[in-house]
């Protein structure tokens, strides 16, 4: 049995026992988020906390949206958290926040405006009053006609010549993405099928609704979206099926396909499954390919909610998946035929795996790692369709890079690098604010070089009516931005969009961290083993457009976070529009994928603060006490030891106990998955202070 | 003096079928609908003048009633539908009796801004007739957007309607109320129009009302078509409604289909047949659309036909393994023709009104093929099933022509159900 499963089992026990106490002992956090210059309240700000103490919540997060006065309010258990304060058009705050037990805490935040405003303009496009503006798909015909679909099952076209909107089709069951091969033909994904719409009499309205493919299962659950649509140059269409959210929608008296309700990798812990997404009907959690002649192929598997589907200019399939169980944070995946991408439940429908259960270790070995992680916090929550900038420079300096929206008001950018024959790369925030709306699930570059976003979130969050269609256009002015981050032999190469000042050569202007995510059935993963990676050398290009960073240590299997300092500005004095990047280094240039011994862990241990038994007591209360008991005497029923007995495990040395707590033992989970190393040292200090082993010899 | 009374009756009759703006198709050779037009007072009648002129002139309705008449009795006598600007207002005993008799007679009622204040003599007006409770002003009187014209015969030929506020907020819609028009301000919504099919007659309520609305050409058309619907007349501009959605007791992705004069049917392309037929208008899609965790669409009206057997139309033998493949559909003037492949044979199915209003005619075209097609006919408690072009064999019927051909299945509702 995998460590993750064991961990979840014990955590569930602990949470179940401790829940009433935790509920009673949350700490109220409140304050106001303001503009740093004007002091004006920021009503659209979000305050997010993420930490182990929130493990029972979705993605281990608590999120508050500021009210009209900029005020926020959260109730969380004491603990250590990653804090994010975000607002459209403002720089983020990302830091640690240790919430101590006790009185409510008031903490105000001030955010500084992002630079770069005006380089990209967000324009909201007018739609006909009779169109329900829950737009879920957007595409262009080869002749430049804009085509959209919406959640109500309509398809509309806006004539390239006259700009007039006309309804092309209606009556579909939740249109969710389309491609438009011609002026009289549209391929559209709706929940039950891939449909070809044709206008055969030339009146501008589809009269034929041809079923191209409907060979997967559906149940009526609210969450089993059919995602897509993308098409390659050979005419292969790609789309996918998300999993049901079990037990929260209508149950399944009527379904298409034979159902398999039990989990493939059963949840064995007590209490509810932490993330109930499940592949109940055939091929849920799979990607599909339908050839130009209509042949249906279940193409790849192991997806949780493959919300964004795109095909690269080289006809390679890329998919975004959404954070949850087995998907530690949202991801961009390069999808290969018959590849497994992490969630085990879709294995029910695979002829090689349906009749056996794989262990976590086997799953881990079979899983193709995410091409690019999109770390929670700054990089949204539910990423949309990836599209490639093939505008030939009409959209600015990012030619060939990937743009993808999110359910939050965010546009992201990804720069891929092929390393030892496999894609990995860097993710950047691209646009935050400027009037960008929520729900940019599908995008398309238009013939004018602008990026068009179809937006809907109906039911998932308040939109205040702001759904529809937006257009992001480049002004022609060169943005001041990080253009790319590439892996090198000894570190990374950073490129800027424009020549920068001399500060780019200062090592102190680059903060590099690395971290990993856990692959487990939890609802998302915290950042694990997060640690600074010292920059040892910076070699700046003479023209100021890039630097080579050498790191003290370069290991594969980590996400590297780059924060560029404020002293670095363009030669004309303009600060960076975005100063953050996340590079997913699954492998080194050598092809190595396994991390070796690290000198960074030792260095980190040396600089850590002394263990704090007071903090350790709180961690013990929240995470350990339910099984180990308040008096430290353990429980024979649960199988936990007596710290006060002669054979107390506390007789063991610190190193051994830290390893035991971090790695888990028997029924005890691997707390190294959820607690920072400092917290483990704190809790050990508390154990040694609070519980003294009785005199006598310890058992061997 | 009430101007409607001056409209020559002959003019309104002449309009029918000649100048009719209702549709691009020929009007039925039927007598014009007799409509009693009522308002609480003379000013209410005066407001209605432009609407009344349109209804009588362009839409060919026969209007009855005038300002200053001593009570509504004369207008209501013989009327098929009563059109109220808000309501009849205070009435003497005779007037109250006349209104009560009309409501009990099973005739139609169209309310323009209907409100309990204008119905002082009708007890429990909101529950009995209106089907909703009036509250304050929607969104504090803020400008709103008309977000939905749900598919309904009343909206035949209308794709957009702009109403202006403020409008009252109605809540607590009765179970049998089918909302057909909705407004929104941000996340807030309010019903703007709804219908009821009561044993005591059909009811339509338009929340927007008043002089500006009564001059609006689209509004005039909607009211005219509401009158036809309330009178159980054909709305010439109405087209079949087809929506793929999540229907109750059907595989997700089934079709909700209604013909302009009914009935409604649920076609399940996975099971391979009509799961049920109901006597009513189109489905309420809001349960599916408005929320995140949507529920199946809602049907209004009694179900009088049901099938449960998996794939009732099979090739070769009645017990052959199910092998239906759904291939999509073609729309011809809004009427869908569905395409299936069964045992290698192309089968096309379309729908039309039956011999009697509200009955359903299923029309099948079958392509060439050697395997006969067997249709299982399940016993029905509330409908008779009549087949033509098939050889009937008890509970089954067979189509055996290798060259292909056509056959029909007519579903006739037995009498004795609820009033249409």
Question: How would you characterize the overall build of this protein?
Answer:
- The complex is a heterodimer of chains A (700) and B (420).
- Chain A has four domains: 3-111, Immunoglobulin-like, CATH 2.60.40; 120-409 and 432-463, Neuraminidase (6 Propeller); 482-601, Immunoglobulin-like, CATH 2.60.40; 608-690, Orthogonal Bundle (Cytochrome Bc1 Complex, Chain D, domain 2).
- In chain A, the strands form ten sheets. In chain A, strands 28-29-30-31-42-41-37-38 form an eight-stranded antiparallel beta sheet. In chain A, strands 1, 4, 7 and 8 form a four-stranded mixed beta sheet that branches. Chain A has a four-stranded antiparallel beta sheet with strand order 3-2-5-6, with no helix packed on it.
- Residues 1-24 of chain A have low confidence and may be disordered.
- In chain A, helix 4 (613-623) crosses helix 7 (677-690) and helix 6 packs across helix 7 (677-690).
- Chain A is built from seven helices and 42 strands.
- Chain B is an alpha+beta fold and 420 residues long.
- Chain B has nine helices and 25 strands.
- The model of chain B is unreliable at 1-28 (pLDDT under 50).
- The interface between A and B is large, with 43 and 38 residues.
CATH class of the largest domain in chain A: Mainly Beta
Shape of chain A: globular
Total strands of chain B: the figure is 25
Whole-number total of structural domains of chain A: 4
* CATH domain topology of the largest domain in chain B: Rossmann fold
Largest sheet of chain A: 8 strands, antiparallel
The strands making up the biggest β-sheet of chain B line up spatially as 2-1-3-4-10-9-8-6
Poorly predicted tracts of residues of chain B: 1-28
């Amino acid at each position: 049995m995998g460590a993750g499963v064991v961990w979840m089992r014990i955590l569930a026990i602990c949470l179940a026992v401790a829940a009433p106490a935790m509920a009673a002992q949350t700490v109220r956090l409140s304050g106001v988020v303001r503009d740093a210059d004007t002091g004006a309240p920021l009503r659209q700000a979000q305050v997010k906390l993420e930490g182990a103490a929130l493990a029972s919540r979705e993605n281990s997060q608590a999120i508050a949206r500021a009210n009209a006065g900029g005020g926020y309010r959260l109730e969380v258990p004491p603990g250590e958290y990653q804090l994010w304060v975000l607002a459209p058009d403002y720089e983020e705050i990302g830091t640690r926040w240790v919430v101590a037990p006790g009185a409510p805490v008031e903490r105000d935040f001030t955010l500084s405006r992002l630079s770069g405003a005006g380089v990209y303009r967000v324009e909201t496009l007018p739609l006909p009053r009779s169109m329900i503006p829950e737009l879920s798909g957007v595409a262009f015909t080869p002749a430049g006609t804009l085509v959209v679909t919406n959640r109500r099952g309509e398809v509309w076209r806006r004539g390239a010549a006259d700009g007039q909107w006309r309804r092309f089709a209606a009556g579909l069951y939740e249109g969710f993405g389309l491609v438009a091969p011609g002026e009289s033909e549209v391929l559209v994904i709706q929940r039950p099928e891939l449909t070809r719409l044709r206008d055969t009499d030339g009146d501008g309205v589809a009269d034929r609704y041809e079923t191209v493919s409907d060979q997967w299962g559906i149940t009526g659950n609210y969450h089993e979206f059919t995602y897509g649509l993308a098409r390659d140059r050979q005419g292969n269409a790609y789309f996918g099926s998300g999993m049901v959210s079990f037990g929260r929608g209508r149950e399944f008296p009527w379904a298409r396909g034979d159902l398999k309700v039990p989990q493939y990798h059963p949840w064995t812990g007590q209490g509810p499954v932490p993330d109930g997404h499940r592949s109940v009907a055939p091929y849920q959690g799979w990607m599909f390919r339908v050839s130009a002649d209509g042949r249906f192929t279940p193409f790849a598997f192991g997806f949780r909610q493959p919300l964004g589907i795109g095909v690269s200019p080289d006809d390679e399939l890329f998919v975004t998946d959404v954070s949850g169980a087995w998907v530690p944070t949202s991801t961009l995946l390069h999808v290969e035929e018959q590849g497994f991408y992490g969630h085990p439940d879709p294995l029910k429908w695979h002829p090689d795996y349906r009749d056996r259960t794989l262990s976590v270790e086997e799953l881990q070995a079979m899983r193709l790692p995410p091409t690019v992680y999109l770390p929670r916090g700054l990089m949204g929550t539910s990423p949309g369709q990836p599209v490639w900038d093939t505008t030939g420079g009409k959209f600015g300096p990012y030619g060939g890079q990937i743009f993808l929206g999110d359910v939050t008001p965010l546009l992201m950018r990804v720069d891929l690098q092929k390393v030892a024959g496999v894609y990995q790369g860097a993710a950047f925030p691209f646009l935050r604010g400027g009037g960008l709306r929520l729900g940019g699930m599908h995008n398309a570059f238009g013939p004018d070089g602008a990026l068009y976003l179809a937006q809907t979130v109906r039911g998932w969050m308040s939109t205040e009516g702001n759904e529809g269609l937006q257009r992001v256009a480049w002004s022609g002015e060169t943005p001041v931005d990080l253009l790319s981050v590439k892996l090198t032999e000894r570190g990374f190469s950073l490129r800027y969009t424009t020549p920068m000042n001399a500060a780019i050569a200062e090592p102190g202007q680059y903060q590099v961290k690395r971290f990993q995510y856990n692959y487990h059935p939890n609802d998302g993963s915290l950042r694990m083993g997060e640690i600074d990676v010292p920059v040892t050398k910076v070699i700046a290009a003479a023209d100021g457009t890039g630097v080579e960073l050498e790191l003290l240590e370069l290991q594969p299997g980590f996400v590297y976070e780059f924060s560029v300092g404020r002293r670095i500005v363009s030669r004309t004095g303009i600060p960076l529009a975005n100063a953050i990047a996340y590079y997913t280094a699954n492998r080194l240039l050598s092809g190595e994928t396994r991390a070796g011994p690290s000198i960074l862990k030792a260095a980190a241990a040396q600089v850590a603060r002394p263990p704090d038994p007071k903090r350790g007591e709180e961690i013990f209360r929240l995470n350990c006490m339910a099984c180990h008991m308040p008096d430290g005497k353990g429980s024979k029923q649960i199988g936990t030891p007596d710290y006060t007995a002669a054979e107390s495990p506390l007789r063991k040395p610190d190193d051994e106990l830290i390893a035991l707590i971090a790695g888990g033992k028997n029924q005890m989970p691997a707390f190294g998955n959820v607690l920072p190393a400092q917290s483990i040292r704190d809790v050990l200090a508390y154990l040694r202070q609070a519980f003294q082993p009785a005199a006598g010899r310890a058992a061997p | 003096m009430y101007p409607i009374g001056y409209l020559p009756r002959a003019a309104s009759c002449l309009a029918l079928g000649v100048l009719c703006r209702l549709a691009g198709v020929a009007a039925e050779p039927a007598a014009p609908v007799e409509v009693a037009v009522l308002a609480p007072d003379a000013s209410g009648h005066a407001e209605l003048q432009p609407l009344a002129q349109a209804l009588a002139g362009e839409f060919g309705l026969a209007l009855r009633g005038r300002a200053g008449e001593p009570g509504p009795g004369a207008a209501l006598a013989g009327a098929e539908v009563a059109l109220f600007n808000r309501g009849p207002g205070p009435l003497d005993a005779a007037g109250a009796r006349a209104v009560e008799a009309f409501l009990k007679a099973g005739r139609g009622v169209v309310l323009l801004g209907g409100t309990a204040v204008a119905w002082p003599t009708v007890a429990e007006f909101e529950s009995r007739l209106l089907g909703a409770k009036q509250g304050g002003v929607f969104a504090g009187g803020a400008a709103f957007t008309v977000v939905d014209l749900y598919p309904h015969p009343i909206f035949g030929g209308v794709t957009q309607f702009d109403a202006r506020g403020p409008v009252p907020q109605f809540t607590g819609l009765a179970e049998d109320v089918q909302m057909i028009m909705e407004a929104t301000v941000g996340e807030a919504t309010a019903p703007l129009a709804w219908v009821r099919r009561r044993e005591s007659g059909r009811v339509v309520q338009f929340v927007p009302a008043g002089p500006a609305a009564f001059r609006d050409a689209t509004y005039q058309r909607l009211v005219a078509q509401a009158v036809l619907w309330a009178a159980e007349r054909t709305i010439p501009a109405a087209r079949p409604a087809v929506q793929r959605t999540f229907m109750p007791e059907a595989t997700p992705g089934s079709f909700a289909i209604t013909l302009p004069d009914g009935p409604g049917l649920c076609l399940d392309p996975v099971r391979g047949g009509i799961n049920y037929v109901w006597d009513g208008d189109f489905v309420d899609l809001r349960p599916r659309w408005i929320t995140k965790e949507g529920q199946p669409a809602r049907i209004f009206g009694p179900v009088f036909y049901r099938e449960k057997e998996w794939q009732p139309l099979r090739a070769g033998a009645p017990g052959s393994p199910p092998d239906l493949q759904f291939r999509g559909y073609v729309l011809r003037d809004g009427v869908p023709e569905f395409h299936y492949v069964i045992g290698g044979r192309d089968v096309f199915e379309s729908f039309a009104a039956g011999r009697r209003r509200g009955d359903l005619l299923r029309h099948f075209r079958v392509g060439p093929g050697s395997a006969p097609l067997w249709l299982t006919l399940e016993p029905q408690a509330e409908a008779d099933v009549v087949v033509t072009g098939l050889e009937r064999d008890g509970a089954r019927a067979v189509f055996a022509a290798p060259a292909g051909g056509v056959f029909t299945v007519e579903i006739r509702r037995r009498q004795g159900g609820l009033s249409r």
